[in-house]
Amino acid sequence: MDRTEHAGCLGSPTPRLSWRHAAGAAPQDGYEVEIARSGAAPATAAVTGAVGREQVSVAWPHEPLAAGEHGTVRVRTNHGDAGWSPWSEPVAFHVAPLAPQDWVAGFVSPRHLGGLADPAPIVVGSVRVGPGLVGARLLLSALGVVRARINGTRVGSDELTPGWTSYHKRLRFEGYDVTDLLREGTNDVDALLGNGWYRGALTWDLRRDLYGDRLALLAQFELRYADGRVETVGTDGSWRAHASHVLADDLYGGQHTDLRLLGELGAPGPVDLLDVDPRILVAPEGPPPRITQVLPAARILRSPSGKVLVDFGQNLVGWVNLTVRGHAAGDRITVRHAEVLEHGELGTRPLRRAEATDTYDLAGPDETELAPQLTFHGFRYAEVTGVDDLRVEDVSAAVVGSDLTRTGWFTCSEPLLEQLHENVVWGTRGNFLDVPTDCPQRDERLGWTGDIQVFARTAAFLFDVDGFLSSWLRDLAADQRPDGGVPVVIPDVLRDDNVIATAWGDAATMVPWVLYRRYGDLDLLERQLPSMRAWVDRLWSEVDDSALWRTGFQYGDWLDPTAPPDDAAAAQADPHVIQQAYLVRSTETVAWAARALGLPDLATEYEDLADTARAAFQNAYVTPLGRVRSDCQTVYALALCWALLGSGDQVEGAGERLAELVREANATVATGFVGTPLILDALVIAGQTDLAYAMLLQTENPSWLYPVTMGATTVWERWDSMLPDGSINPGEMTSFNHYALGAVANFLHRRVAGLAPVLPGYREVEVDPLTDGPLTHAAVRHLSPYGEIAVSWEKQPDGVVRLDVNVPPGVLARVFPPGVKRGAVKVGAGEHTFSG
User: Fold this and answer.
1) 3-class SS at 689?
2) Catalytic: which of 5, 285, 607, 717?
3) Is 717 in the active site?
4) Architecture of domain 290-402
5) pLDDT of 768 strictly over 90
6) Catalytic residue at 69?
7) pTM of the model
8) Among 172, 248, 443, 741, whose CB has the most other CB atoms within 10 angstroms?
9) Which fold has domain 1-96?
10) Crossing angle of helices 507-519 and 466-479, rounded to 10°
């Protein structure tokens, strides 16, 4: 089923369905969907004709589901003479509340506890269960973040529930099957509440309670009995609150825990029912944050000043797990975090005002497991004080992030390039923690629109980000200004009136288009089209009589390598050139979306606007022989990749000039956030594949591989976040886990290995690897909506290139065999080999 299915929280009455066929399956020409709902007899819907050949994001063929319904769905497909496939394994569903009246629980907040300076509160209550219970579901949300237990056992494995959304307009809830946690009689429920994003410090100003000053719990139980009864109960004024052993918690600052207070809750206090509109409650669309991996410590070392340091060998996001023993009550253990060491000491300067420190006051000598519950950190190294005899086996790191399914892999003959790709993967894992953040470690961690705009294509190859980014786009639309302006961070916590920053606000158009192209979901595109249009219309309201957009502050080609440390927006590329290029691109993206949605008149309107903006670009910024204003790598990359040039002379001249600039730079990168995703493609378009490879494999700074040679395990914010002498770049914008420059991985997948989507959902792909270069082999695998597609090529000892392509059922591949001058060869499902 589609992204709306999640842990008992199906949030749509008409979910879309997708399935994959087994290898070797004949073409599909029909299907049946069987639903067994709420104990009723199974019902089957058959679909034939053209629609019967679809298998990705197909429409719900039954009557709409109702809130509280549960059951299973399974599919079988018809393959003509080959007959019917076996039925798929049944998929369980449980429909979440779909309307305000479906909620009986209220938000309860401690009346006298849980203030900004108070310990984290625990809200407690009970649920009475009668005989004959056959099923139970808990719907859980909070103002803040929550960890719940039933009868002392933790509910679920999610972290930082309910995550971060535009809380005043969209507040997510999670659903859990808790049948096995309940028993007949009275069941005790307790929920630890933390500040999280709702009330904790946010932004470099450390602003607290941006959304509200009171923490609150929402818990609704749905109890189903053998006789068919359904009982719904939840948080109300009868619940109570205690202070907890967590004395302070903050996402930036860390957590202070006094284990001497564990179990010493004191007298319970009353709660208040808050007036929260249930219409803001929304079901999840993607997986929640969880511990996705636990890394053992790689080594323990001493700093020059004598500090105990733990190296986990990998820059990651999460927290440190410690096992301690033999300490006296009241002994304090402190864990500080950082991504790098600077001259052997913990390099905390890039954290700015984020303290990233967890502190534990111990209860006594018994062996104790230490880990925070209400915070996270970005780190590779931890400094531990209070434990002088720390053993490597007593330390591990919990890796935390949205529990996304991995879908893309890349290998090649150059180990440094493989490490770069691995760094991109780890950067994605760390920054995709409920929202796509820019960085996970310092006093920021915000959903910057520009970063995900340039990185979305790479992300959608590496992981299944359909639901994750779909949810974030809902927040973008919710926080979008009435005039169409898009905040530069989503959720919008900066609340800045400057909302027309090119390349940042363009996430409103670019990200929905990426998701449609990669996952084939027209519903998402239709849902986001008003937001897309509003952004583009806002831009056109700024256009002058020459059809040029030249107003407003711009970030430009952010972090161009020539920018001084104290001015990240200072770039070689003229910001007006970038503005106009994005005006063209976003306008034509709206036109493409309108075409895909069957709106030809609207598509024509925006196509005409895009042509007007393109002509204005050429007239104002391009010479007849293809010189582009500001004459740097980024402006040529934009012009070539986005077809912004007119005559053949302009295209040829721009390509030649780009090649000159790259040679003059000794194939080092001279682009920032805007130009980096496009520069290698632009060189290939210009017929300079040799220069593209030279730049890709360059190890001198600035280059993608320079950080790899410096030991990086994630992508850096600056090309030289760490200087060659081992000192940290003095610039304020210095992060060691920033995925934007890792957008180059898209080029590795599409061009180096050679797998590129052509039709939405990968229904048709192009296989055209760049084998004329220094690499001797490359391979890529992608788990598409139709199944796994694999491409690999290798240069044989005799110079012949062998190309292997594996295509799943339902996909057509256009293959350009190596060494063959003729056009593409079209192949369907199966394993195919070419050589030349």
Assistant:
1) helix
2) 717
3) yes
4) Sandwich (2.60)
5) yes
6) no
7) 0.97
8) 741
9) Immunoglobulin-like (2.60.40)
10) 150
